[in-house]
Design brief:
The protein has 244 residues and is mainly beta. It has helices at 61-70, 191-194, 236-243; strands spanning 20-25, 28-40, 44-57, 76-87, 93-99, 104-107, 112-115, 119-125, 138-144, 146-152, 157-160, 165-167, 172-176, 180-185, 203-208, 212-215.
């Protein structure tokens, strides 16, 4: 049988025999499992070997309660066993990030695909946002030592925070957790606003400090809800105090 389908670029990646995750291609993750790992529910597309899948909700009772209050979080499954696991999420681009002790990465929960069990995560309020946005109020903050796979809708840009930086909160995938965040009104108030006219850019997130922010070339609210369909509690300030 002959076909371009069977070209080397489409064959299974067997370059490494070391356990852990690597890219099968730009839109599919391969995890050589020897123990357990964590992944977003519903992202398994194939596996070889012996594996068990256990739904974990948002990663424990505390995180489940936070997710119910904030609308943010990662619906997780624990995968245990031995073999090759393949993961993907709506043909999104996949990027691998290695965290070391002392690192902290704030990630939009909708962009988390999988991570090593050595990593920890919690749901934190995005400081400086208050109740001004229906997107980006809460993010998942990852710490510890290990590798995480994140997704983007298109090829992202990594911006170094060396000048005043402003990003649409629906396009920010992740950023250095030590950055100071706030808001900047982009849509100027005036007679046009009163008449219902809008630029579609009511406000942007601002970033300051030393670090980076990753921006995807599309707008997708936390959790993957359609634009305008995201639900966040109106008590963001109070919830932020309770959740932290």
């Amino acid at each position: 049988m002959r076909s371009a389908l069977f070209s080397a670029e489409n064959l299974e990646n067997n370059e490494s025999q070391q356990p852990g995750m690597r890219l099968q291609n730009s839109k599919m993750l391969k995890y050589q499992l020897n123990g357990e790992m964590m992944a977003r529910t519903g992202t398994m597309v194939a596996y070889q070997g012996q594996m068990q899948f256990q739904a974990l909700g948002s990663g424990g009772l505390g995180k489940f309660l936070k997710k119910q209050l904030t609308g943010e979080g990662v619906p997780l499954m624990k995968v245990s066993g031995h073999g090759d696991l393949f993961l993907a999420d709506r043909a999104s681009d996949i990027h691998l990030v290695d965290l070391e002790p002392g690192d902290a990465l704030s990630i939009n929960g909708a962009n988390v695909l999988a991570f090593d069990p050595t990593l920890n995560y919690d749901i934190k309020m995005v400081q400086g946002m208050g109740m001004l946005s229906s997107a980006g109020l809460f993010n998942c903050v990852f710490t510890g030592y290990g590798r995480i796979a994140i997704t983007s809708n298109g090829s992202p840009v990594v911006l170094s925070i060396d000048a005043p930086t402003f990003v649409d909160p629906q396009s920010a995938i992740c950023w250095s957790a030590n950055l100071q965040t706030g808001y900047h009104r982009a849509d100027q108030l005036g007679i046009g606003t009163l008449l219902g006219r809008s630029t579609g850019e009511a406000f942007t997130m601002s970033f300051a400090g030393q670090g980076f922010v990753v921006v995807q070339p599309s707008e997708e609210p936390p959790g993957g809800h359609p634009v305008g369909g995201s639900t966040q509690s109106s008590g963001g300030g109070l919830l932020g105090g309770l959740l932290d």
